[in-house]
Amino acid sequence: MTIPHRLTEFADDLTAIRRDLHAHPELGFQEVRTSGIVAGLLESWGLEVTRGLGKTGVVGVLKGTRPGRTIGLRADMDALPIDERTNLPYASKTPGVMHACGHDAHTAMLLGAARYLSETRDFAGTAVFIFQPAEEGLGGARAMIADGLFDRFPCDEIYGMHNAPHHPMGEIGIKPGPAMAGANFFDITITGKGAHAASPDMGIDSIVIAASLVQQLQSIVSRNVKASDQAVLSVTQIHAGAAYNVLPEVATLAGTVRYFDRATAEAIIARMQALCDGAAKAYGVEVVLDMRNVFDVLENDATLSQAMLDAARALVGEAAQERAERVMGSEDFADMLRAVPGAYCTVGTGGGIPLHNPGFVFDDAALPLGAALYVRMVETRGGV
Ligand code: NI
């Protein structure tokens, strides 16, 4: 691995920052402490800082010593509603909230890049450091864009990354083109007629309808989506009832639809609506489908994917590879990539415990690598 020497010199500082953020995780749009620390550090390194963009987002701007283009770099800052079970000395001090997706690390990596570039200033153009809130399904990227992110800080290219504990340390992967699925979240509310459980004939049982609807929904991807297309429909919640002897009036289902083709998503949604309407008619109840688009399809620009791959190769050699497979997971950097061309990669961090697991542990040895990749994107693309 070829990491700039100065970055390795302050690797311990990055670890300290990361562990402090880890001990004090904050949920989406509540990253007040985190964004305060980020903004303070950026200011201390002489960056021009804008706070409160997209509620708790922060943007830092740094100009190089030569004229050139503007390169945006993005990290996410939010934690998850998970009770940490790692026994680490710097484990979350906030019960029920945990940095289980490594966004504390992404934040520290981007801070490392900002510090390094503020010291060297050996680049053309301008670097825009985007610290985004609320990546975990709450629309932080959209909030920043709606708040004028790219109007106030127009970028020619943007880059982002995510740690990957299921890949070996230092293995960097990029999938050009559509790389991560678009995602909708949905809620279905079935309003039947409550009754005594001993007299189901007096009511309309919302639970039976919910159970049947879950089965019917599972026919959509298997029977209505072209086999060569990729889509997922998962029902992830069923809520109804609170007693042994009461048929609940209301049952709710919730879940997610993942897709790569908007037309496929539209067809799935139309089919879901038809099944909900059919159940309503068949059982004489009200069935309401509430569908929300949460993530766009993440699409990496082909040329800029190659640029990021080249930058990664300069750091880790052949451990940087183009990936053939797109993934059904989603990422709201997709929304930024709709506004500005760029690329998004995974940085292998080893360890193996999956993201979003209460036992997830991030290996701080990867912090200088992540920082170095951000740095390289500015150094190689600012003067193109
Ligand atoms: Ni994440």
What ranges have pLDDT less than 50 throughout 5 or more consecutive residues?
none
N- and C-termini, Cα separation: 25 Å
CATH homology-level superfamily of the largest domain: Zn peptidases
Q: What percent of residues adopt helix (DSSP H or I)? A: 25-40%
CA-based gyration radius = 23 Å
* Class per helix and strand makeup: alpha/beta
Mean of residue pLDDT? 97
Main sheet strand line-up: 1-2-4-3-5-16-6-15
Note down, in words, how this protein is organized.
This protein is an alpha/beta fold. It folds into 2 domains: 5-178 and 298-381, 3-Layer(aba) Sandwich (Aminopeptidase), CATH 3.40.630.10; 182-294, Alpha-Beta Plaits. Helix content is 36%, strand content 27%. The chain contains 11 helices and 16 strands. The protein has helices at 5-9, 11-23, 32-44, 103-120, 140-146, 149-152, 206-223, 262-283, 302-316, 333-339, 367-381; strands spanning 48-53, 57-63, 66-76, 124-132, 157-164, 172-174, 177-180, 182-191, 195-196, 231-240, 246-247, 250-259, 286-295, 298-300, 320-322, 342-348. The strands form 4 sheets. It has an 8-stranded mixed sheet, with helices on both faces. Strands 10-12-8-13 form a 4-stranded antiparallel sheet, with helices on one face. Helix 2 (11-23) packs antiparallel against helix 4. The chain is elongated, with a radius of gyration of 23 Å. The two termini are 25 Å apart. The mean pLDDT is 97. Nickel (II) ion is lined by residues 101, 103, 135, 162.
Give a topology summary.
Blueprint: H1 5-9, H2 11-23, H3 32-44, E1 48-53, E2 57-63, E3 66-76, H4 103-120, E4 124-132, H5 140-146, H6 149-152, E5 157-164, E6 172-174, E7 177-180, E8 182-191, E9 195-196, H7 206-223, E10 231-240, E11 246-247, E12 250-259, H8 262-283, E13 286-295, E14 298-300, H9 302-316, E15 320-322, H10 333-339, E16 342-348, H11 367-381
Parallel strand pairs: 3-4, 3-5, 5-16, 6-15
Antiparallel strand pairs: 1-2, 2-4, 6-16, 7-14, 8-12, 8-13, 9-11, 10-12
Bound molecules: nickel (II) ion (NI).
